[in-house]
Design a protein that fits this description.
Elements lengths: L2 H11 L1 H11 L3 H11 L6 E4 L7 H4 L6 E5 L2 H10 L5 E3 L11 E7 L7 H14 E12 L5 E7 L2 E7 L2 H7 L3 E11 L2 E10 L3
Parallel strand pairs: 1-2, 1-4, 2-3, 4-5
Antiparallel strand pairs: 5-9, 6-7, 8-9
């Protein structure tokens, strides 16, 4: 079994336990508000990559009626439909996903932490093409001083993570203006919090 399949299986097999943990953390209210303040557009078109159990979708749809959340785990999508029945969710693998056109915002809260560098670069490139001018992508990535792959086993199962430095993210973000690229400590983990804006040129 490859690392990607192993990680997907962990999210599917432990979906309910993980969902309970995520809901306990609450939605990223301030981070979501920050993005909609930047966009300043009525009813912006939003894609959330790795929507999981709808933890943040519940907050995002307060700002727009044009939302789509995708996740590779069918079980997580099932739980998202249950928790946020008014939102639009789809099962999809971001590695071969065809982005909707004319997006205004792409959220990827702790979802692309399972994407190796080559995959992440391609996702950012696809997002760049799909975004309108001045469109925004918001990323939360696990931090390391240099790009690192880690496979960990915990009570939920086995997952492989890819950790990035601020410089790593910047090097992959061609075509974007970096609005934010900073570190944040949360629950014993350092994160790279990134806001990228599509360059008009």
């Amino acid at each position: 079994m490859n690392k990607k399949t192993q990680t997907i299986n962990t999210y599917s097999d432990s979906a309910e336990s993980l969902a309970e943990k995520f809901y306990g953390l609450g939605a990223r209210v301030d981070d979501i508000q920050e993005i909609f303040d930047l966009v300043q557009k009525k009813n912006p078109r939003v894609l959330e990559i790795g929507c999981c159990n709808g933890r943040d979708a519940k907050e995002i749809i307060k700002h727009t009626d044009d939302y789509l959340g995708i996740d590779i785990s069918a079980k997580m999508i099932e739980l998202a439909h249950q928790k946020v029945p008014t939102a639009n969710f789809q099962i999809a693998d971001i590695e071969n996903y065809i982005f909707p056109e004319k997006l205004d915002v792409v959220f990827a809260f702790a979802s692309l932490i399972h994407a190796p560098k080559k995959v992440l670069k391609n996702i950012l490139s696809e997002a760049l093409t799909a975004l309108n001018n001045n469109g925004i992508i918001r990323l939360s990535m696990k931090y390391a001083d240099t790009y690192t792959e880690i496979t960990k086993k915990d009570e939920f199962g086995v997952r492989t993570y890819y950790l990035y430095s601020e410089e790593d993210i910047a090097s992959l973000a061609g075509g974007f203006e970096i609005i934010k690229n900073e570190l944040r400590n949360s629950m014993g983990q350092v994160w790279v919090e990134v806001i990228l804006k599509k360059d008009n040129l």
